[in-house]
Sequence to fold (499 residues):
Amino acid sequence: MNLSDYMNKYIESGSDKKCCWFNNSWWSRKKFGELADECTEILRASGFSHGQRLAVLMPNSPMTLAIILATWRLGGVFCPLNEKTGELSLTKTLDLLKPFAVILSESVKPELENSLKNSGWVCSRFDYESLRGNENFTGKTAPADDFDKTLAVIFSTSGTTGDPKAVPLTHENIYDNIKACLEHVPDLTPSDSLINVLPNFHAFGFTIGCILPFVLDATQVLLTSFMPPSNVIKAIIETKLTVLLLVPTMLGFAASMVERMGVKISGIKLVIAGGDRYNTKLDDRITAAFGVPLIEGYGITECSPVLAVNPTPSVRKLGTVGPALPRFELQLRSESGEITQIPGEGVLWTRGPSVASCYYHAPEVTSERFIDGWFNTGDYVSIDSDGYIKILDRVTDIIIVGGFNVYPQEVEAILDEHPAVNTAVVVGMPNDMSGEVPKAFIVKNQGVEVSERELIQFCKERLSHYKVPRSVEFVESLPISATGKILRRVLRQKEREKK
Fold:
């Protein structure tokens, strides 16, 4: 199966039917289909073919959707990237993916484009709505990847060591996840209009914002950015949006903007949050702003990404992420790997047709998380007698800042480059605005002085803004386990006890 079949069927279902809203106007399915056809022909003529990867740095737009469809029609793999991840990280990721070409949006800075070109990558700028100027686009000869002939998309992260890590998802993975969501959340119907503002390099935004509307036969409202939030509120009102998909940080901003603008939102029937832990203190404000209670879900890129969600507002359990979607098998295990009872607490392991089978060309990392068909989510959870899941802590050390993953080891590697730093440890601290923020604990080298401000500036010059520690604490020593491992959870707990 190929998801392009569902997208083609969607286009053919009615030329005058609405497809997507962008830049203050609705696109018909016919208009979108024509753009997708042009895009397909340009890619085909450029030499792009089955098994090749296409890297794309472009926010949500009709062109992004057209590139996705064109890539899949030709048997290729769509590789969405985050331009703000930093030049070094992007270059490492491209070395891993070996793409046919790198598609850039009009908003990408020329300095980044020149740097990528100097590294040997073929780059081409695409407009959000038109292919004018791309008629002679030609990519770089790239090896066809027999890694998995059913691959649809590869999501990239910086990885736990600062080296790139990529999650390859097949057409079956993504389709099963969408199908499971539609079975599990009965209020989603073809008459709905879903917001598509989460970035497409974010698995939640890609699967649920970009692709689910095509499978559901619904419409989507495209926004290139969540900022400023006032534009999001205006789009909600103008398009008569029915389904709001946001990470909790965005929801907090959106609710504040509704209050500030003094507008009344009507017609929304579902507000779905995922991508980060939801602060239940926001619940009354969310309900007041959008007219319905929020339903919280939980996902992880390796699960395509939705693993669980509260099915409806009427059966939600506030503070939980709901029960698992159909076809997900769950296990709770101790940190040493022993299976424990459900209901109970433990590290969450899962398997099912939505779950990836490995990391892209990374057998050593794969062997750490994928074992005998089961995937270790890295999250410590409780599951009650009704199957509702509550996220208690992350066994892995990922920090989630406003829905974006920050790997402590990447930040620590930068801090370790500073001549005053002997040892750096970075952990996530709770934050009302962004969910979490990084904090650095530093053991200095003897006889060398450095200030908190200097280290933060050092990071700002080398890391994306959301990865930069918001605070630095200098310590004489760090908590160590019997095996010599730094105990990050002890640092987190001590910090929380101060509040």
About this structure: The chain has 14 helices and 25 strands. The radius of gyration is 23 Å.
